[in-house]
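Deliverable D4.2, example record:
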Amino acid sequence: MDIMDIVAKGIFKITKSYGKKIAKKKTAPVIEDVMPTVISGNTYRAGYSKAEIMPDLNSGKTYYIAGHGSGHVMDGVISPIYTSAVWLDCGDDKGIIWISADIIGLTHIEGDIVREKIKASGIVPEGTLVNISCTHSHSGVDTIGYWGKPTFSIPSDGKDPDYMNMLLTTMADVAAKAYQDRKEGKLYSGSVVVKDGLHSKRKFVDKHEVLSRIRFAPNDGGKEIWIMNFGGHPNSLGGKNRKLSGEYPYFMREEIAKTSNAEVLFGIGPIGGMDAAQLDWEDKLHCVQLQGKMLADAVLKIDNEKELEPQIKYICQPFYLPVSNYVLGFLAMRKVMSCNPYPNPDSTLGLALLTDMTYMTFGDQKILLLPGENFVSTVFGSYNPAETSATGEGEDSNPLPLVEIADDRNMIVYGVSNDMTGYVVPENDFILNKTQAYLNVAKDRFGDKHYHETNGMGPNAQRIIADTFAKVIKNFN
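Output generated by the structure prediction step:
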């Protein structure tokens, strides 16, 4: 027996025992269905604010880069990183806050800390929906904990408490300032196909190379606010990079600033297994600069905009996501990441995370915010058929893709929003190593490696998300 087989068995046994202890200590509260909140009026109002969220690399502290393996110490800066916020309402003080940050992600627990800080400020109206999306830069600071110095291949907590406090405080501050900046104007929605804008080693039938934009144009002619979305990982600086960067989202915003009178809030789409196009294989910095310019050029080609009626409607629905990944469960048990587990019978470990999804409409534009990194086919369809799927199962073995549940292929979907819960892989493409499941990659019947499954909650994540979304749509309508 391979030594790693023994390690895998040991970690599974320890984590399952942890699940039994959780079941003895507490019960999982029943989650009620959430009914929609409707905000309507005569005009949109929006406000924007942004601020740097830079670590102090001269402080003598160690900061770990969040991506491409654990224990990578940051040693310099390529570009600054920011957090930004947009306030949106329909003419009065009942509205929503949408925050984005140039970070790998936040857990639901850290997101709630931001919400508490916003509430404590007393500036933003109480009861405001607060969404937090992340650009998911793999050259940012570790804000989850997964990328600290490893011991026997098991990472330690890579978060710096002082940096995290500054980050969460700054996110709350920009939210308050966005509310104070609100102006009247009109809201538009549009999109453009970015041909050859995405790259993947997985067998995707359709990569959905679409760049979307929600555009707020203030009546006073001041700076516009663009809420943008694209489904590619910002990770092209690669595993040898040790310098801080916001990667292509930063360079995209810089290019837009040169050509347009606009501020940008950016969030990624369904990025599971998907990277932005590799436009320069040799010079990685040049590559991310080109990616930024590609998207900045593309957004100016949007020619299908529609004006949106001033009405905002939303449901933020909590749900339990079963955890079958014993490696992530073990890390959570060791408090590498922030985690508040609940007992759950649908998990092989008896554990689940409490997370949520937010479904919104601005006028008739549908928008869905999801935790984690969803594969594009789980959202937009075009599953692999039996002939090319990893398991040999056909498309019908998967749940309905989310756009079919919403009955709208033009729904804009944001990932790594309000929680960071790992990859969500279609069921007919989900395979695990037979003896080292979540500890080592598996190879499918075609000899292709399956890394993403090792960093997801488990094989039923897609079905739980689809079932929850179907319930949300029913209640929304």
